[in-house]
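Exercise 3.2. Students should predict the tertiary structure of the chain below and write it as structure tokens, then compare their answer with the key that follows.

Predict this chain's 3D structure.
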Amino acid sequence: MSELEIRPARSDELKAVGELTLAAYAAERGLVEGVGYAAELVDAARRAELAELLVAVDGDGTLVGTVTIARPGTPFAELSREGELEFRMLGVHPSATGRGIGEALTRAVIERAREVGAARVVLCSMLTMERAHRLYERLGFVRMPERDWEPHPGVTLIAYRLDL
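Answer key:
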């Protein structure tokens, strides 16, 4: 893998970050017809305004991944509680999968959680995103079935946590 930099997204990158996120979810079967999630995925400008938006950039300066970090009680927080840091919309460009980018972004979230003094990192994921589940479990995340939920009928999101 070429050199990888993880950093906050720049304003001139937001359109590309949104397109990357949408492409990643489409490739991983993370989109469900009729629920409107594609519009949320592509709106990186809103995520950058209301949450922390990180990007992964390879040695050539190409955007290859992204993740959104949300604190409890903020607009992008879905299941986090006091003392937890949540991440969402982890996406790796389909042409860059298998290079450790998702792991690097997840590790950056864990490091950010430590920086802000969070006791736990949490996330939820669609049942279909099995590759992501394997990554989270390999990094020590465990299931939290008590926080599984359905944002739309027939769309089940399963919850994970990593205690720090």
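Discussion points: Residues 4-163 form a domain with the Aminopeptidase fold (CATH 3.40.630.30). The chain has one domain: 4-163.
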